[in-house]
Design brief:
The protein is built from 8 helices and 12 strands. A hairpin with a 5-residue loop joins strand 11 and strand 12. The strands form 2 sheets. Strands 7-9-6-10-8-11-12 form a 7-stranded mixed β-sheet. Strands 1-2-5-3-4 form a 5-stranded mixed β-sheet, with helices on one face. The chain has 324 residues and is α+β, with helices and mostly antiparallel strands. Helices cover 29% and strands 24% of the residues.
């Protein structure tokens, strides 16, 4: 009997297989749009669960901040303004009140910063040993401002990356292995970046935050659903030296490491320069990193500075379970 494994939650081929089973079983056209948030009747809705381990990455980032940013960013990526959020906790017996209060304070701070109102919630406590500290589920409801959908990808579009990659996944790796490395998660709400772009009326086709599976997962998903080949320029992708060194040490591909404050967007070539200029106000590493090719073979091709090319495949498994 086939069983669900950790790899089925990793952002790669196994996760696509699992999600595909859900889509086919439910036979729902909205689900098949391959967005992390659903668009319908002028509104957007996203739900997500967070199982981060360890629950505190540093003084700034913990599972509380992550749950707000993660769900809000999903709604932002389809061109919607987040308005309301639900909040549900599954807490293991014995979890400390002081840790819970820190998490709640982070949730309050982040939701107030972006003007999202928490309107309902739930709490369940399970016996010790039946969970791992705390899990959080959020649902965010928003109003559509500009309809952005993966299904509208077409040849000739430019692909822009909003900043450097891999810092969230690398920060989890550092904490779990008790390493000494100056790597902070990029976890942040992308509200300011997204609305700076939307307010300029640029011809943006779609956006996606590069969480589980990193930019490799997003690019392969776009290629798979659009059928178009995608060409990516390796030298245009910014990776901090500390992240690159960690990847070399563990044998990981930085393109597959998770991000929680970095996103990709497809945009008309005429607007790429303006979009990069705007995004560099938030992260100097924003750049045009690729384009949608006319060929329709659903491949992601990465080219290095010397012109050599290889396929950038979707993640095969879970590099780091419980990163979000």
């Amino acid at each position: 009997m086939k069983e669900i494994q950790l790899a089925h939650g990793g952002g790669g081929e196994e996760m696509s297989e699992l999600i595909g089973k859900i889509f086919s079983s439910l036979d729902n056209e909205i689900l098949r749009q391959a967005n992390d948030a659903a668009l319908f009747d002028g509104f957007a809705l996203s739900t997500d669960s967070f199982t981060l381990s360890p629950i505190f990455l540093d003084d700034e980032v913990n599972i509380g901040k992550l749950c707000v940013c993660g769900s809000v960013n999903d709604v932002l990526m389809v061109g919607a303004k987040p308005l309301y959020m639900s909040l549900a906790f599954i807490i293991e017996e014995g979890f400390s009140f002081s840790s819970f209060e820190k998490i709640l304070n982070s949730i309050k701070k982040e939701s107030e910063k972006i003007g999202v109102k928490i309107v309902c919630g739930d709490t369940k406590v399970v016996p010790k040993g039946k969970a791992d500290e705390i899990y959080i589920n959020t649902t965010v409801f928003g109003k559509s401002i500009k309809k952005l959908e993966t299904k509208n990808i077409k040849e000739g579009l430019s692909i822009i990356l909003s900043g450097d990659i891999g810092r969230h996944g690398a920060s989890v790796l550092v904490q779990r292995n008790e390493l000494e490395a100056d790597i902070k998660s990029d976890c942040k709400c992308l509200y300011d970046e997204v609305f700076t772009l939307l307010n300029e009326n640029l011809e943006i086709i779609c956006m996606r935050d590069a969480t589980r599976g990193g930019i490799s997962a997003v690019l392969n998903e776009w290629s798979l659903h659009s059928k178009f080949d995608i060409l990516v320029y390796e030298e245009k992708i910014s990776i901090k030296d500390e992240v690159a060194g960690l990847c070399e040490l563990f044998g990981y591909e930085a393109y597959e490491l998770a991000n929680e404050g970095t996103f990709l967007l497809c945009i008309d070539k005429k607007d790429e320069k303006k979009a990069v200029e705007l995004l560099r106000k938030f992260n100097k590493n924003a750049n045009v990193i690729g384009e949608i090719l006319p060929s329709k073979e659903s491949r992601v091709i990465i080219q290095n500075a010397y012109g050599a090319k290889r396929f950038l495949e979707a993640p095969k498994g879970e590099l780091l379970p419980r990163i979000c």
